[in-house]
Amino acid sequence: MKTLLSTLCLGLALACAAPADAGPALERIQSSGRIVLAHRESSVPFSYLLPDGRPVGYAMDLCLKLAEAVRKKLKMNTLNPQFLLVTPANRIQTVVDGKADMECGSTTNNAERREKVAFTVPHYITGARYLVKADSGITDLAQFEGRTLVSTKGTTPLTSITQANAERALHIRIVEAPDHAKAMEMLAAGQADGFVMDDVLLYGLVAARPDAAKYRVVGKFLTIEPLAIVLPKNDPELKTIVDDEMKRLIASHEAQALYERWFMKPIPPKNTALNLPMNYLLKDFWKYPSDQVPY
């Protein structure tokens, strides 16, 4: 009887603590005492694995701060982050299926994806360009005519280059890699003449290599990519908490400090700095931060 009474009291306490309009994700977080953060394997410097298997990065640091905001809002004493590795191909579905409460990486907020999931305020704005070997002589898209380009499965640059190839009749052979690391390997091995991806990710991949001088990023932007943390579509209360915290981090300049940490200073595991100052696109967007993007 005593055990039953204790269980009922605990259930009432949890019900009272949860927001009235809490959706499935908040209810899951509240009842389990954990929040699941999906992360990537090689999206440097946003979300990637160290040799010991720990996920780190700019987006990971932001997600941990967002998780703390959720803990405070729910008035929980503790909230344990758990980490789930995802790929470009399954990251969206993982959030849709409720296997992760946030996806912390380099995912573009676009109209197609907004049909399935929600996004918070962008933490980076980039564009797709081309990584080539420095001695290739390639400087723009037209020079890939009749050659091979690799991109990562499930990404917007892959979709965009496929469309551009068809529209311009360039006869480029486009191949898919399962992740960024494999695409980089294909370029290094001569299996592709270029790797098309968000330029910031290309810089990150090259910086981690001992032969970084052999590669360079070239060409005009093929796309404009507002990158943001992914959230469940059916949890407006969770989204409000996350959006409010992202805006607070930007207004307090904590987000800018994290940017400096991951883009301007040496980062693990090679302790090499990317030296990528914040671009004007992100600076302007953060003057009036919003989850609304024109794409």
TrEMBL record:
Pfam families recorded: SBP_bac_3
InterPro entries: Bact_solute-bind_prot3, Solute-binding_3/MltF_N
UniProt entry keywords in alphabetical sequence: Signal, Transport
SUPFAM superfamilies assigned to the protein according to its UniProt record, in alphabetical order: Periplasmic binding protein-like II (SSF53850)
Family matches, as SMART domains: PBPb
CDD domains: PBP2_GltI_DEBP
Domain Solute-binding protein family 3/N-terminal residues, every copy: 34-266
Superkingdom of source: Bacteria
Signal peptide: 1-22
Family of this protein: Belongs to the bacterial solute-binding protein 3 family.
Name of the protein this chain belongs to: Amino acid ABC transporter substrate-binding protein
